[in-house]
Amino acid sequence: MTRPSFDEMHATSATVREHYKTYDRWLAQQPRDMMKQRREEAEVIFRRVGITFAVYGDKDDGEGTERLIPFDLIPRVIPAHEWREMEKGLRQRVTALNRFIHDVYHDQEILKAGIVPKDQILTNAQFRPEMIGVNVPNNIYSHIAGIDIVRAANADGTGSYYVLEDNLRVPSGVSYMLEDRKMMMRLFPELFSENRIAPVAHYPDLLLETLRSVAPQGVNEPTVVVLTPGMYNSAYFEHAFLAQQMGVELVEGQDLFVKDNFVFMRTTQGPKRVDVIYRRIDDDFLDPKVFRPNSTLGCAGLLEAYKAGNVTLCNAVGTGIADDKSIYPYVPKMIEFYLGEKPILSNVPTYQCREAGDLQYVLAHLPDLVVKEVHGAGGYGMLVGPAATKDEIAKFREHLIANPSNYIAQPTLSLSTCPTFVESGIAPRHIDLRPFVLSGTEVQTVPGGLTRVALKEGSLVVNSSQGGGTKDTWVLEDGPSWQTQSQSQSQTGQSQSQSQSQGGQSQSQRA
């Protein structure tokens, strides 16, 4: 029998958890019409600012290729003590993952020790032989990591956090975290006086600080750019948003060129050297001389300039080897191997279908498991057994038997739920959390992250491409220190919102 989901807000049907009590009292006083009006207001503002994502495939829904990511008005609230423990676990995990990537492309000690099977690295599609022996600043490969966290109920009614995935290549979603917070401040300013909510608006400053800290040796005033594949990319809004917030140039591959192993961007004042590239393009498209020869998204000669130490790519080429789902089961062992510590955050138990015994178990229990492609993303290429039809399970079984090494499987966790404002009123919906971890001269986070919510009743798939939405994530502090900051941030957020609205309109016109 499936264990009931952990309810983030309610300990029992009649009891509200301590960290939600102030919000619950406020919510009880609000008429439903007001919440509906605020939701409509949010949709208008988001559309005006241009906070959309591109959808590929069927376009018969009348909305074209651009859609709003639905925004829910009810925040996900995390108490300070829970966040502090999660933050320690995130730093530990990302530190070990960066050590692992460096090791894989240098001494390969973890492979020699037999902790990670050698063939799972050297034959992996995400392994980049071009990076062997290449030194990168501070030995940091994944400067921006998005770690997906879920919470499941325990037998005693408590909930435990688990890491579901590590996103170490080009993780997205942080712009929605920032815009969700600005929207909540605009719609409900009184909540930020009544609750001590840790701010997140300083994330672009931390990001720029991180990027500048890994500039090539000897560069004191680095030029940083954001490299985007262009306006048709699903996350283009985020690329433009982060470039604007950091005050750096947003460039496409055609804006860059390499000369004498240095990277330059074309400007109206002539060529300007580029020192750090925050790239939002996958490895395969970065350099047509090395990877896909038909790619027009990257810059020819970029890898040679990178290997010469004349430009820093964030994230580094080859980081995908550590966020491949077939490598995920080994992360707890990586933490022990590199750091000599026990993992603070647990993995979800995982079956590797490349192993005969695991495959046999998975084939026998497909209706009860979640099966994922090791290179899959966005909720695609996966089977959620309990929600699948017999026909879907049968077809997936054929794929699994044909190519077992392409899949992992996990027990179906009943993700925690959070009250969500839907058409029928307030109802529980499943959620996850993507905190963003920045690694430069130090490892840093902002409190919280992006909470994604599965808006379809009973659905466990939170991805925006599969109909999911987002919520503001509040980390409540114990002391009074955040209250003044939150009020100050509210004023800043409102002025930024007006400024961004104007900028977003011009972006929308260009699109």
UniProtKB/TrEMBL annotation:
Residues of the Circularly permuted ATP-grasp type domain: 75-454
Highest taxon, organism lineage: Bacteria
Annotated coiled-coil segments of the chain: none
Sequence intervals crossing the membrane: none
Low complexity bias: start-end ranges: 483-511
A Pfam entry, by short name: CP_ATPgrasp_2
Chain segments carrying region Disordered: 462-511
InterPro entries referenced in this protein's UniProt entry, alphabetically: ATP-dep_Glu-Cys_Ligase-2 (IPR051680), CP_ATPgrasp_2 (IPR025841), UCP005522 (IPR016450)
PANTHER family (alphabetical): BLR5612 PROTEIN, SLL1039 PROTEIN
Protein name from the UniProt record: Circularly permuted type 2 ATP-grasp protein
Annotated source species: Ideonella lacteola
